[in-house]
Amino acid sequence: MRIALALLLAAVPVLGAEDTAAKPFAVEYYYKARWGHYDEFVKLFRKNHWPLLKRQKEQGRILEVRADVPRYHGTEDGRWDYRVTIVWRDLATAYEKWPDQERVTAELFADRKVFEAEEQRRFEILLAHWDLPVSSAELGN
């Protein structure tokens, strides 16, 4: 994780915006569930991961969280079932370890074994998961 952050920070001047690291940074997180397991994935995401994201938003680490689902289906190789877009406070926050994660997880989930088993299950039912940093592009006049 630290190597990825270092590489991204090193690329900032190449991108032509030295202050990019201090600006909001958006990442789209794509999830592709095994056939027949979409509802289970969403249920587990909302139960276990969404409260952690909300807490980070309350702390100011995250500026915006949005979930999207495709209206229709595409080809199997291009299929995704659930996309979560997170706008992080800045580039560093997107890649650093959340210092309060253990404390907040213990606060929100009294039965840690159940939480861990359900999080493991949430990823077991995925065929694919990928993260895609994105930025806005100007269209011009």
DSSP helix count? 5
Which structural class is indicated by helix and strand composition? alpha+beta
CATH class equals: Alpha Beta
The helix-strand sequence is: HEHEEHHHE
Average pLDDT level: 89
CATH architectural designation? 2-Layer Sandwich
Structure description:
This protein is of the alpha+beta class. It has a single domain (22-134), classed as 2-Layer Sandwich (Alpha-Beta Plaits), CATH 3.30.70.100. Helices cover 41% and strands 23% of the residues. It contains five helices and four strands. The chain has helices at 2-11, 38-59, 91-95, 101-108, 112-124; strands spanning 25-33, 62-68, 82-88, 126-134. α2 packs across α5. The longest helix is centred in the middle third of the chain and has 22 residues, at 38-59. The N and C termini lie far apart (39 Å).
Short descriptors:
Alpha-Beta Plaits; disordered N terminus; 5 helices; four-stranded antiparallel beta sheet; alpha+beta
Summarize, please.
This protein has 141 residues and is an alpha+beta fold.
Topology:
Layout: H1 2-11, E1 25-33, H2 38-59, E2 62-68, E3 82-88, H3 91-95, H4 101-108, H5 112-124, E4 126-134
Antiparallel strand pairs: 1-3, 1-4, 2-3
Helix pairs in contact: 2-5
